[in-house]
Specification:
The chain has nine helices and no strands. It is mostly helical. α3 runs parallel beside α7 and α6 runs antiparallel to α7. The protein is globular and about 55 Å long.
Length: 176
């Protein structure tokens, strides 16, 4: 049975959105295609009507997550005040503690670095879009992005909650 194009596109977007969330929460290797499809309310068999492989889904999921980050960065603007407000929002306990609803680059960057050239290229395209969205001085945009990502990655990686909080606060203060 064929579905209308609009319905197929909506299902495709839902699969990508759920995959992006699950991959950010648990990583690429700890999420199966079946789990993604179940989260999207679809059968495992329907996956291949949308994607040729799990790797293709990973690329789409990373691109989706980076698109969300790009749009958010644009909404704050390229002014110093906008960048400061964005950092205040990004470097929070809520973001640290909820990778599934947070930044795809902070959650998946280390995995992408060890992944396929195709996934790395998709990640790079998304990063370039984010850097462009921040406008202004490219060097400053790279620095800020690296500081934000590094702060969240380190805060998530340590066991001591006080050290984790200290990392977020230190990066927030340096970015003001």
């Amino acid at each position: 049975m064929r579905y209308p194009a609009k319905e197929t596109a909506a299902k495709h977007e839902l699969i990508v959105k759920e995959a992006s969330r699950l991959f950010r929460e648990r990583g690429f290797e700890n999420v199966t295609v079946g789990e993604v499809m179940k989260a999207a309310g679809l059968t495992h068999g329907a996956f291949y009507a949308h994607f040729a492989s799990k790797q293709e889904l990973q690329e789409a999921a990373v691109a989706h997550g980076q698109g969300v980050s790009r749009d958010l960065a644009q909404s704050y603007g390229a002014t110093k005040k906008g960048r400061r407000a964005y950092a205040e929002r990004y470097l929070t306990l809520r973001h640290r503690d909820n990778p599934g609803s947070g930044c795809a680059m902070a959650a998946l960057g280390p995995e992408v670095a060890r992944s396929t050239p195709e996934l790395r290229a998709a990640f790079e395209r998304g990063l370039e879009e984010i850097l462009s969205a921040k406008a202004g001085d490219r060097e400053e945009a790279i620095f800020q992005t690296a500081a934000l990502l590094g702060g969240v990655v380190l805060a998530r990686a340590v066991k001591d909650p006080r050290l984790s909080d200290e990392i977020l606060e230190s990066v927030r203060q340096k970015l003001k």
